[in-house]
Amino acid sequence: MNTMVRNLKKVENGIDISLNSRYYCLIFKIIKLKIKSEAMKMVHKKTLDSFACLMQTNRYMQDQMKDWLHKYKLTFTEYSVLQVLHQKGRQSVQQISKSVWLTSGSMTYVIDRLQEKGYLSRSDCKEDRRVVFVTITNAGKELMDLISSYLLERISTLFQQTTEEEQQLLIHILHKITQNKLTHT
After folding, report:
1. Cys-Cys crosslink for 140: which of 114, 119, 135, 165, Cβ 3.0 to 4.6 Å?
2. Start and end residues for every CATH 1.10.10.10 domain found in the chain
3. Domain HTH marR-type: where (predicted)?
4. Which of 39-53, 130-144, 168-182 has the lowest mean pLDDT?
């Protein structure tokens, strides 16, 4: 039986190995594990590098937006609320909160500031007193039209060295990432 095992040839993963002894078989398994381990390290490194690059880019973009919006005396959060109202029309505070990922308590503060600036107005819901609707005013619409053209110029300069195909690929990748929500925290 031992002679048969020693002379047995095994093909695994396209590599022909001779099993002259258990020693060679063990070495082969160790090499295979080492290769797999190194490949996993490379995958993890690329994943972490991708994540770090994404986070750096996100921070850079947020800083750029902050600088650009400072010209209009708006914070990014205020701009986000106005953008939702400009695109979707009248919304409840809860609907806006979901769109811009803020708690309703934080949203109340932002809405107060925007209302003081004259960019939006509030109205109570007749069917449910707990619900408050928010609407962008004409002054808010004019501001958003002005900001939109300004931001379009600035954002275009950020992407001027990329092709349409690269931009489409970026959109595709970012959508894949956001669709792959973590289920464990």
Report:
1. 119
2. 53-163
3. 47-179
4. 39-53
Q: What is the pTM of this model?
A: 0.65
User: Is the pLDDT at 97 greater than 60, yes or no?
Assistant: yes
> Model confidence at 128, in pLDDT bands (50, 70, 90)?
confident
Alpha-carbon distance of 108 to 104, in angstroms, equals 6
What are the φ and ψ backbone dihedral angles of 124, each rounded to 5 degrees? -80, 150
Taking a C-beta distance cutoff of 8 angstroms, is the pair 111, 122 a contact? yes
Could you tell me if 56 and 62 are in contact, meaning their C-beta atoms sit under 8 angstroms apart? no
**CB 114, CB 124: distance < 8 Å:** no
Helix (H, G, I), strand (E, B) or coil at 179: helix
User: How far, in Å, CA of 83 to CA of 98, rounded?
Assistant: 13
Write down the CATH number for the domain with range 53-163.
1.10.10.10
Q: Are 134 and 111 in contact (CB under 8 A)?
A: yes
Count CA atoms within 13 Å of residue 46 on its CB side: 6
| Contact assessment for residue 100 and residue 84, using Cβ atoms and an 8 Å cutoff | yes
Strand partners, 17: 10
* 64 compared with 22, residue with greater pLDDT: 64
Count, residues in the chain: 185
